[in-house]
Specification:
- The chain is about 75% helix and about 0% strand.
- Helix 4 runs antiparallel to helix 5.
- The chain is mostly helical.
- The chain is globular.
- It has 6 helices and no strands.
- The two termini are about 25 Å apart.
Length: about 140
């Protein structure tokens, strides 16, 4: 995944895992809100936005490394396991919620099928905004 290769050098260039993650999440939120415009975008711009979104998503290794800096080495495994558990729990919850939203949009008719996807984009953007608003309160870790 190309995004994984970009986040390491980006974090070193920015000099802060926290700012790197916040920047990536803010770009993701913006892209999701653009995608929520739906069919008005057209196919090619939608594909470009989705590819850009995919480039921004793999900030998880930087987040794990940032979290690891707050615990002693003897507790690092537990801390990373907790971060992974929370991440996987959210993936499960979001997949379930997304399925329900898309199903609701589809039940409203063929003209509203895209509505489900638009609801998913807005919902994920909202959840990311809530998560990043909590994350901004976390202190930055030294390199």
């Amino acid at each position: 995944h190309l995004g994984n290769l970009l986040y390491g050098p980006l974090e070193r260039a920015v000099g802060s895992p926290k700012r790197t993650i916040i920047g990536g999440v803010l770009v993701m939120i913006g892209l999701l809100l653009l995608l929520a415009l739906g069919p008005a975008l057209g196919l090619t711009p939608t594909i470009v936005l989705l590819v850009l979104f995919c480039l921004c998503t793999p900030f998880y290794p930087v987040l794990g490394a940032h979290c690891r800096k707050f615990v002693p080495l003897s507790r690092a495994g537990r801390a990373i396991a907790c971060v992974n558990l929370m991440g996987l729990t959210m993936v499960f919850a979001m997949q379930t919620l997304s399925g329900w939203m898309i199903e609701i949009g589809t039940m409203l008719g063929a003209a509203s099928a895209a509505l489900g996807y638009r609801m998913v984009f807005v919902c994920v953007a909202l959840i990311l905004a809530i998560a990043v608003s909590g994350y901004v309160r976390v202190r930055d870790a030294p390199r």
